[in-house]
Structure formats: C-alpha cells, structure tokens
Amino acid sequence: MHPDPSPDELGAQEDRHELADFSLRSAAETYEQIALAPPTFLSRRMRGIGAALLGTMLWFHETILATLTSPDTPTDMLLMVLAPPCAYVLWILWRAWDTPKTPRIIVFGAEEVELPLNPNTKRSASVNYGDLHAILSLSRPKSNAVLIDTGELTLGYEDADFAKAHHPDASGKLSGELNRRILALPNHQAVLDRMRTRHEVAMAATKTPTPVTRAILAILGGYFALEVLSGALTEPFGLLRLGANAPALIEAGQYWRLISANFLHGGWVHLFFNGMALYFLGMMVEKLLGSWRFLLIYMTSAIAGAVGSWVLGEAALSVGSSTAIFGLFGAFLAIHLRYWSQLPPPFRQSKKWWGFIIVVNGGLPFLVPAIDSAAHVAGLISGLLITLAMLKAAPVLAPNRAASKLVTTLAGAVSALTVAGLVFAGIYAFDPHPNDAEKVFARLYEQAVGAENAPEQINEISWMIAIDPKSERSRVLMARDALSEITDRETGRVELRDTLATLEYRLARLSSGEARVEAIDRAVALEIALLNSSKHDQTDPSLRVFFGAQLARFLRYRHVINQPNDPLGILENDVQVTLDEDKKLIEFENLGHVREDIAVYLLVRSDDELLGMLRGCLLRGSYEFANPSYGLASIYRGIGAGARLTFEPALIRKAPACRVDIEEHEARVPEFWPLTQEVKELP
Q: Exposed end of the chain (fewer CB within 10 Å): N or C?
C-alpha cells in the first residue's frame, strides 16, 4: 500500500470520499491507460529506512564495533548486529532487480484493469471491474490519493505517483475511470451494493473515537517519567521497586506485580517501539471493536501475558506493555479471521503482511534473548480467544455496535483490578524491602548459570551491581561468587575478569579487617593479569587503557588503607624515588641487591589529584653503586610540561615477563596509564 493513510487520517476525510452518496460519477474524459511517474530506485521508503538504519548504527557504533571485533562474541549477538544491514543490502539488490526501466502504465481493458503495485516496481495486479471491493478517494495536504481494494490487495496512489501530463487530480481521474467502467457492467448494482457496505463500515470505523488507546499511551508515558525521575533505570534492579514482574516475589504473594509490570519499560527504546505498536495497532482495534471491547482485550491480555511470563518464562525480572500489545495482535488476527471479506482499507492487512509479522516476531527471540516469548505468546492467545468469543454472535462487522452488558461489566472489573494492582505497587515503592532484592538476585543467578548465554547475562548483571553505589555487600558477594564460577570456565573472556576485579574492589570497600585486604589484593592481581595478557593478544588498545585506569584506582585504595608496597619482602630496603624535574626523570634510591626481576607500580599525582599509574621493570642485580632511572618525557607530553608531579610507590611484584622478548635496557622504559574520565566516575 503505497500512500497508506492511518485510520485517523482516513476518518478526517469523510467529506471528500467519492463514494459518499454512492452515485458513482464517471470521469469527464475516458482513458484507455494512465501513465505513472518515472520509476526511481531510491524510493522514499528506502531512503527513510536507510537513514533510520544509519542513525541507529551511528548511535550504537561502539557496541557494534565491540561486537564485530571481539573474538568471543556469541552467535546470537553477532546475528542481531549483522541482520539489519544485511537485510537492507538484500532489499537494495531486490529493488535493483524489481525497479522497471520505463514508467509503468495503468491499462484499462474491456473486462479488467492492470494496476502496477506502485510506480517503482515491475509487479502488477490484474483485477476484473466486477471484483473491485472499494474505491476510496482521500484528501491529503500536498496531494489527493485513492485507495483501491481488490479483495486481496489494497493499492494506493497519490497524485505525485502519476505522470505530470495527468496532473492535477490524477488520482481523481483514475477513480473516475474505474467508476465509469463499473457503471458499464451489467451487474453494476450488485457491485455498487458491495462497495456501499464496505464504505459504510469504513466510515463507521474511522468516525469511532479512540480514547482508551490515547489514555493508555499517556499512562505509559507518565510511568516512564516516574522511572526516570526516581532513578529506577540507573539501578541494577530499580524497576523491582516500582513493580516489575519477578517470579520469586510473585510466588511469595506479591501478585499485584502481574499488573504493574505491564506499565513499566526498560528504557526509552523499549518504550518507543511498544508505544508505536500500541498507537497504530490500538487505533485499528479500538476503531473496529469499540472502546469497551478494546479495554477488556488490552487489560486481560496484559495480565495473561504476565502470568505466562511467571509460569512459563525464564526471566527473573521482566517489564513491558508488549504483553497487551500481543493481545491486540491476537485481536486483530481474530478480526481478520472473522471478517476478512468485510474489512475495508486501510484496516485489512494482506496475507503477506501477516506472514511478515509472524516471521519477524517468531525470529526475534533467537536474535534478542531478552525478549520474553512466554509473555508474548500468552498475550497473543488471550487476545485472540477473547475477541473470537465476543465476535461469535456477530456475523457482520459493525464498528459502531454497542458493547453488551457482560462486556462492559467484565471490562470494568478488570480495569478495577488493574487500578488496585497499581495502588499496591505504589504503596510498595515507598517502603524498603531489601530481602526481596536478595530473592530476585538468587533466582537470577540460578537461572543465568544454566542459560546458553550465561556468561553475558551474569557479566551484565554483575557489572551493574559493581558500579551501583547503593549495592549492599551481600549483593556484591553474590555477584562475585556467581561470576567467579563462570570466569573459571571462560578463561579467555577479559570483560568477565575485569568485572570480577571490580566486584572484588567494591567488596573491599564494603568490608573491614583482613577481608578488606584480601579482596583488594585479589582485585589488583586480577587487573595486573589482564594487563599482562592483553599486551600480547588481540585486546582492543582502548580496553587496555581502561584496565590500566582500573588498576590505578585499585592501587590508590590499597595505598589509602596503608598496605605495604612490598608485601613479599622482595627488596632489602624500602623503595624510594626522587624526581628530577629539569631532566624529566625519576631515580630509585638505596635499592641495594634486587634478587628477582620486579615490576614497580607508582601512583602519579598532581596537587593531590590522581592522574594515573606508572609501571616499569627492574631486572635482578646489584644497584649499590648506581641508581636506575625512568625517563618521563612521554608522560609530560600528555599531561603538560609545567605540571608538578609526585610519584608514590604503590606495589612491588615479581615480574618474570620483564625479560621476555626485550633487551635489558628496554626493561627500564615505563608504561603510563591515565585515570580516564570513565573510570573516575565509577564508585
């Protein structure tokens, strides 16, 4: 359907419909054919989708690049990133083949008309004049349009689709010629009656208001604003406080979550797509069935979908209005099954459209594991069955038919139940329930360990806990234990080990005594191992800088709690460094005899602000008569020649790698890692 109008747009044009009084007017001139505009390869739809795809890729370019360059990217994540651009490329190839070389022509034969699907395709539909179901003329701001219902297809043409020789009112010429051909048929009265019925249904539907759809959209927007203002979206499980669907808590008696979860969303992208689906689908269903029936379908499907997620789903936490939206899909399908031959354009969707919807929604869970398939299926079935039950005694589609007392009673009851659920959710949000979070965490990790994408799930959850300043020690400990189990199996996943190190650091900050020291030492050891391994493998250089900044942060805390910089007693004397600002170098004093090759880690400060970390090697040997030194020219170039720097020894470790693949004099070239802004903002 080339210039598809929305139901609202169609409803605004009732005074312009050519079939308003059903006295079909013939064209002032007769035509054997009408030429369409020259075909274009880059159609508006192709340009629009291409621009949207490019914008999305630019917005998420860091995630896309990380996915494509990481050797450990899961197959489903790789498919999710590659599928949209690959599909777009295939579509371009298809369009290149399908774009005609010369302008298409609408040909009026003796018994049938050949209608190109649009000016930019080779495909056409041949339809007998007696089989036409509807010809609807529409008024648009820039050009008029006409919708032609063939019974199987709805074809749309606007004035801009025709050759300039037919302007103005080219769409009116097409509808006028079709009208003339229909009036010439022997059975034109039967065709006219069928078209009148179609027109009456279309007009009744387009005039039907949609207050429920609009009210629900406003409520969803209001709830999302509440999520943003309360900070729920920035906390690992902030949505739990506002009423997210959590099986572990529902089983404990918090059944109101089956209602409140349907009004929450995990982010603006989630809200945008659900909101768009609700707007277009909700308008269609509410106009065709009326507000009371729509209300019953929406609310019941939402609850049914949430129950399906609880009973059959695998997610420990879920939110979203897609439970109800899939109920609307079920209702729309029921309408098509019941009234296929009665549905007027633009309400009737083609079999091709339904096939596309089924394929896309059936395939998305394989590409996006976060999709709650159980909730979608339960909502779909609920909407389908409820709608079929309501339409069982209505053989004729009548959008303006009043709802029965049973329907209004049930809709009122389920609405009251929904309001009660939201009230309970509001009461819950104002009281702390720390034990509830622990129950959800336990369920989450229990499910994630056994999942196919367990490393990704547990790492994402654990990182959110690690960087949440409000995370309690019990949560950090639980995340650390779960991630440790995964990390032991996934030895090559550097992102897992960095998250584990961050959890150990956070555990140190939340502990005391020996537990604090052990935790920070584990964090330091993990990050040092990451730096050492990433120097020789394919790790992204920017990620290596992040690891160095992380280590600087960990060593600073180790220094704050007064831990010795030489815990193994490798050196005979305490390490001391002096700075020669004129020569831009630091010297080690009074080292004596060094028994092992060592790595020296120094914190770099300026006016008490931590700038980063310096690491260099010292090879074993005697330094009684010579003080080794490090040149700092590269550091000053990055920081500024006038900076006043201080260097504090933070850690001495054995470093056999200092002799690997380097000459002895190169061993004294230090490496510097700045404390990046990203790491500075971490708790």
A: C
Could you give the residue numbers annotated as active site? 322, 376
Q: What is the mean pLDDT of residues 12-28?
A: 43
DSSP state of 597: -
* Alpha carbon distance 408, 79 (integer Å): 46
Average pLDDT of the residues in 444-450 = 68
Q: Within 13 Å, how many C-alpha atoms sit on residue 166's CB side?
A: 28
- The region, left, alpha or beta by phi > 0 then psi within -120 to 50, assigned to residue 35 is beta
The token pair that represents 419 in the structure block: 């309001």
Q: What is the DSSP string of 653-668?
A: EE-GGGGTTS-TGGGG
Q: 580: pLDDT confidence band, cut at 50, 70 and 90? A: confident
The number of residues making up the chain comes to 683
CA atoms within 13 A on the CB side of 651: 23
Tokens describing residue 658? 């200092």
Asked whether residue 658 carries a pLDDT value surpassing 80, the answer given is no
| Predicted confidence (pLDDT) per residue in 450-480, tens digit | 666 667 777 877 888 888 888 888 888 888 8
How far apart CA 61 and CA 38 sit, in angstroms, is: 37
pTM (2 d.p.): 0.70
Give the DSSP per-residue string, 261-300: GGG--SSHHHHHHHHHHHHHHHHHHHHHH-HHHHHHHHHH
User: By C-alpha distance, which of 155, 147, 150, 134 is closest to 201?
Assistant: 134
For residues 102 and 92, the answer to whether their CB atoms sit within 8 Å is: no
CA distance 446 to 437: 14
More confident residue, 44 or 390: 390
Tokens of 130: 């007696």
Is pLDDT of 266 > 50? yes
**What is the secondary structure of 428-449 as a DSSP string?**
HHTS--HHHHHHHHHHHHHHHH
**pLDDT tens for each residue of 152-201:** 788 889 888 999 888 888 888 898 899 889 988 999 888 888 888 888 88
Dihedral over Cα of 271, 277, 278, 279: its sign: positive
Contact between 144 and 132 under an 8 Å Cβ cutoff? The reply is: no
Residue pair 270/323 in contact (Cβ under 8 Å)? The answer is no
Three-state secondary structure call for residue 107: strand
Which helix (H) or strand (E) covers residue 593, if one does? Answer: strand 593-594
- Beta carbons of 135 and 147 less than 8 angstroms apart: yes
Q: Are 44 and 243 in contact (CB under 8 A)?
A: no
- Band (pLDDT 50/70/90 cuts) for residue 61 is confident
Mean pLDDT, rounded, of the chain: 83
437 pLDDT exceeds 70?
yes
pLDDT at 619: 81
The helix (run of H) or strand (run of E) holding residue 68 is: helix 61-69
Residue 27, Cβ density class (10 Å: 0-12 exposed, 13-18 middle, ≥19 buried):
middle
β-pairing verdict for 621-622 and 585-589: unpaired
How is residue 506 written in tokens?
A: 């956070």
Q: For the packed helices 434-449 and 454-466, what is the interaxial angle rounded to 10 degrees?
A: 150
Percentages helix, strand, coil for the chain (3-state, rounded to 5) are: 55, 10, 30
Question: What does the alpha-carbon distance between residue 591 and residue 621 come to, in Å, rounded to a whole number?
Answer: 10
Q: How far is CA 621 from CA 33, 304, 627, 655, in A?
A: 97, 74, 12, 14
Could you check whether the bond before residue 395 is cis, i.e. omega within 30 degrees of 0? no
